[in-house]
From TrEMBL:
InterPro entries: Bact_response_regulator, CheY-like_superfamily, Sig_transdc_resp-reg_receiver. This is Response regulator. The keyword Phosphoprotein applies. It comes from Fluctibacter corallii. Keywords: Phosphoprotein. The modification 4-aspartylphosphate is found at residue 54. The keyword Membrane does not apply.
Amino acid sequence: MSFPVLICDDSAIAQKMVKRSLPDELATEITLANNGAEAMQYLFERQFALLFLDLTMPVMDGIEVLEQIKKHSIEVYTIVISGDIQPEMRRRVAQLGALDFIAKPVDKPRLEEVLVKFGLY
């Protein structure tokens, strides 16, 4: 099963790590965004099934992206991947609609575990 995936992170290395950690069957339709504003532009232009979202980015951070997704009722499963692993931040992203939270650096087993948990893989 393959569907459109958007990876939003200001680090090219982090983008590559997420991309490499995705199961091969999912990794065929991937778009990369370097900040939240760019991600929102893509989300307004086309439908994505899954968004991997960093929190700390220039221009527009991940919290702002989650707020905009909620405000505009954009349907996209969102998984936050961030180094900010504080319990309060985890609660905040959950309140804003993120499915789950993965601490950086992402690894393939943890990512697959989350995808299976939500029936995405």
